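Issue: ligand-bound run for magnesium ion - logging full I/O for the record.

Environment: standard queue, default settings, no custom constraints.

Inputs:
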Amino acid sequence: MGAGHYQLLTSKAAAGIAVVRVWGTLANQFLKRHTRIAAPLELGSGVVRRTALVDSDGEPVDDIIVSTGRTSAEPEYWLHLHGNSLVIDKCCALARECKLVDSAAPVWQFSDGIECDAYQILPNVLTLRGATWLLDQIARVRDACAAVARCDDLKQAQAACRELLKRRNVITWFTQPLRVSLVGPPNAGKSSLMNALGDQTASVVSAEPGTTRDWVEVLAELDGFPVAWIDTAGLRSPSDEVEAAGITRTQGLLAETDATVLVLDRTDPAYASAVIQAWPGEPPDCVALNKLDLDASSDAVHALLPAGWATRTVDVSSHTGVGLDDLRVRLLGDTGRRSAVLDHPAAFCDRQVRLCTAAAQAESCNALRSIMFELTGSNRNPPAGSPHGLPQSAG
Ligand SMILES: Nc1nc2c(ncn2[C@@H]2O[C@H](COP(=O)(O)OP(=O)(O)OP(=O)(O)O)[C@@H](O)[C@H]2O)c(=O)[nH]1
Ligand SMILES: [Mg+2]
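Outputs:
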């Protein structure tokens, strides 16, 4: 009976790939049984082979790549799977069936707790700008903690901890898409606007009012922040049941989204007036007066807007793209996503939030200092199976 181990080298979060390392004498048996590589020992160092990961019945589980990275005495293979938790779990279960043991050894060594936090959170970040921001935060938070630990003025040190806490929601700007709904009368150009903003043709556009019956969601980026544009069914008296259901869902959606853009056709004051009059509650975050290319001079729809709405108005044309950047800037500003905030240190995981909260309430500089040391000095390896630890509540 030989020995063997397996180890997940990457995060379990959704990603392009996940890597599971298997090694030891039993690794050959695992490869023979659960891949279509008949003779694993023939895989020399540096060899990369595409194959299928198969279950105990020989049914394919995933299309994978197997590599042998090292020239060690014992067999060692890296299985490059698709980055999906179901596939990862299945692969690990198959490894256990072959008597491979989950290695308890830490996968990565980090220079300190802050760096460890950042790499645990990284797989949750949805954009390149977010990843850059997070990795830059390692030095920022580290420096901020060092400054707090050096400080002999308790009140000043506590205030610095509160500053770190104040920006704890910044990480969520990169891990949770800003959900923006586009609502308005039929034919106002909501779908056209969403396609233009999302830079893809996700929603059907037609001159026929009532084209969009349900809502359509598109994931995109807005200046490096993840955003979900949500196109909705036109708001009007429904002429059929399907459309009525769509409109009811649109009304429910308004309460759930982070921001609402009311799209009005500036050439159609009658429809615009009906929607403005029936508008429920709070004003929309933004009013996009669309089809500027058809009518740049008339302000008939503008005149219909309630007093408080005038400052929220942007003239746009989803056909020519005019005004779209103004709309983007306005939405980012309204939801607090300002570039200047990104240059400051921010607590970016629940561990940091917990320790900064304790530090902000510490009764002496020494107590506060030891919390700062815990924040930076410990936790150099991610605890096995730990959640990714995003802050629970935005500050
Ligand atoms: N000239 C011009 N036409 C536009 C513009 N935006 C949309 N349209 C046209 O307006 C019509 C309706 O556009 P849609 O994007 O389908 O409008 P909608 O608000 O999604 O309509 P429903 O789904 O029916 O509620 C189409 O013929 C579009 O080509 C614009 O900026 N300029
Ligand atoms: Mg539509």
